[in-house]
Amino acid sequence: MLSYRHAFHAGNHADVLKHVVLVEAMRYLLRKDSPLWYIDTHAGLGQYTLNPRPPAGQAEWLDGIARLWQEPALPAALEPYLARVRTLNPDGQLRRYPGSPRLAADLLRPGDKAWLYELLGKDFEVLQAQFREQPQVRCTAADGFAALKGLLPPTPRRGLIFIDPSYEVKSDYQRLLDTLADALDRFAGGCYLVWYPVVQRAEALELPSRLLALQPPRWLRTELRVKSPPAEGYGLYGSGMFVINPTWTLPGMLGEVLPWLARRLAMDESATHVLQFDLP
Ligand code: SAM
C-alpha cells in the first residue's frame, strides 16, 4: 500500500534540483528538429497547489522554491526553470508548483510525445484530467518500472527518461538498478535522469556506486546537501541526480548554479554540493 504523497514535498530543495536538471536537459534535446519522447516513470500529480500556511514540519516549499522566487541575484542559468514556475503563477504570487509532467509537457513540440506513469489511483486521476486536451501526452495508471521495457527503444530513437521513485519501499532501489540495466540494453543512447535521496540508509548511500557499476557510457552525478545528516533517523538531508548520457550543457550549467543553490537553500552551515562526471 503506497502512502507517499508528493504534494507534501512539492517545491522543496529536492524538487528544485531535479527540475533544474530536467528543464536544462529538455531544452537542450529540443534544439534538434527530430521528434523526442519524454517518459516519466513516476509522474505524481503533474502540478501542485502550495499550502500558504503549512503546518509545522510541512513547510518544505518555503525552504525550496520560495527562496528562489523574486530573488534579484538569480544566476542566469536558473532563469529557464524559474520561467516555467512563473507561467503557473502569472500574478507574481507563488501559489502553484509544476511537477515533472507539467514542466516537460509544456515544452513539447507537435511531433514529440510524453508517456506518464502513476500508480496511485487518486493521483493518476488528477494527472490524467490535466492532460486530457493534450493528445500527445499519454497517461497510464501502471507501474512505471515495468512499463519502461515496452517503450524502449523509442520509435524516434530519441528519448529523455525521467525516473523519480519515492523510494518508499526498499525494493525501489533494486528495481531501479534492474530497470536501468535492462533499459541500457534496449536503448543505450537514451538520456536517463534518475533522482535519489541522500539519507542515512545503506541502500541510498550505496546507490551512486551501484549506478556506476552499470558502466553507463557517459554519466554525471550531482548532489545538493542542504544540512548535516540527522543524529538519528532517516531524514532527508539532500538529494541527487544521476544522469546517463547527460546533455553537453549540463556540467557547465550545474558548475555555475550549484554553489549558489547550496548557499541559497542551506538549512545549516554544512550545506554543500557534489558534481562529478565522465563524458568521454
Ligand atoms: N516526478 C514527480 C515530479 O517531479 O513532479 C514526482 C513523483 S513522486 C516523487 C513519486 C510518485 O510515484 C508518487 O506519486 C507515487 O504515487 C508514484 N509511484 C510509486 N511507485 C510507482 C510505480 N512503481 N510506478 C509508477 N508510479 C509510482
Structure description:
- With 280 residues, this protein is of the alpha/beta class.
- The protein has one domain: Vaccinia Virus protein VP39 (Rossmann fold), CATH 3.40.50.
- 33% of the residues lie in helices and 19% in strands.
- It contains eight helices and ten strands.
- It has an eight-stranded mixed β-sheet with strand order 5-4-1-6-7-9-8-10, with helices on both faces. It has a two-stranded antiparallel sheet with strand order 2-3.
- Helix 4 links the parallel strand 4 and strand 5.
- Helix 5 packs parallel to helix 6.
- The longest helix has 17 residues.
- The radius of gyration is 18 Å and the shape is globular.
- The mean pLDDT is 95.
- The structure holds S-adenosylmethionine.
- S-adenosylmethionine (SAM) binds next to helix 5.
| Largest sheet entry | 8 strands, mixed
CATH fold annotation: Rossmann fold
Radius of gyration: 18 Å
Our count of domains comes out at 1
Please indicate the percent range of residues in DSSP E strands (runs of 2 or more).
15-25%
Q: Tell me which CATH architecture applies here.
A: 3-Layer(aba) Sandwich
Please count the helical segments. 8
| Average of per-residue pLDDT values | 95
Shape designation:
globular
Order of helices and strands: HEEHEHEHEHEHEHEEHE
CATH class: Alpha Beta
Q: Bin the helical content.
A: 25-40%
**End-to-end distance:** 43 Å
Strand order of the largest sheet: 5-4-1-6-7-9-8-10
